[in-house]
Amino acid sequence: MANFLVTPLTVSKMLPTDYVGFTFFVGCMAMMAASAFFFLSLNQFDKKWRTSVLVSGLITFIAAVHYYYMRDYWSAFQESPTFFRYVDWILTVPLMCVEFYLILKVAGAKQSLLWKMILYSVIMLVTGYFGEAVDPSNAWIWGLVSGLAYFGIVYEIWLGEASKLAAAAGGNVLSAHKILCWFVLVGWAIYPLGYMLGTDGWYTSLLGRGNVDVAYNIADAINKIGFGLVIYSLAVKSQKD
Predict the structure, then answer these.
(1) Residue ranges of the domains in the chain?
(2) Cα–Cα distance, 156 to 73 (Å, whole number)
(3) pLDDT tens readout for residues 201-241
(4) For the segment 117-166, what is each residue's pLDDT rounded down to a tens digit?
(5) What is the full DSSP assignment across 116-173?
């Protein structure tokens, strides 16, 4: 009979006052639950909307996996898991931009719009990471470039080609597009604010320094799950029409 070596499971104790660790744990479970919901609902939609709902599930699933590791990293070192966070964002934020393209295909959206949005998001995230982790002494410069890319996305969906396509589509698509636009304008605005709180620059004298993980974690859950629920609602309404 084979002998097996059994090692005890080590579980880090979360203190009642560890609000940051709590938000990592809740974020992980919320993203996981959202992923299960989106994936299990796929069969009720036709091919036209199934891809959009699938992407919503992928966004929250990728985030759930990264939050699992970020929670453990925080528990072990009590430090912000900057690297894991940006790996999460570099995968999920472009996918959130893809959602705009997918719902606007009914109005004739071209792949040029898709790649433009993805390019803006990648520039925004890569320069943000450089400012936070690679070259923090020039954080305000990297943050400026990241902010310009962010406003490029905002312009595209509010006033640019995406906005015009949504107006042409009308109905449920236009309503969903407007809600997603507000997510980007208001919900995503938390990230530049968190960036400024976590780095040094001309803005430090105005905002000070602080732990940004709670704000990031709450924003991630609201934005990613909220994005998915808007897409899900649009798919449900479109199936009924």
Answers:
(1) 19-240
(2) 36
(3) 877 777 667 678 888 898 999 999 999 999 999 999 987 76
(4) 999 999 999 999 999 999 999 999 999 999 999 999 999 999 999 999 99
(5) HHHHHHHHHHHHHHIIIII-GGGHHHHHHHHHHHHHHHHHHHHTSHHHHHHHHH-HHH
Per-residue tokens: 197: 């709180």
Which two structure tokens, joined as six digits, stand for 18? 């560890």
Q: What CATH code would you report for 19-240?
A: 1.20.1070.10
Cα separation of 187 and 178, whole Å? 13
**φ, ψ for residue 110 (rounded to 5)?**
-100, 165
What is the chain's length?
241
Q: Helices 82-104 & 161-169, crossing angle to 10 degrees? A: 50
Do residues 187 and 212 lie in contact, with contact meaning Cβ atoms separated by under 8 Å?
A: no
Q: Are 136 and 178 contacting, i.e. CB atoms less than 8 angstroms apart? A: no
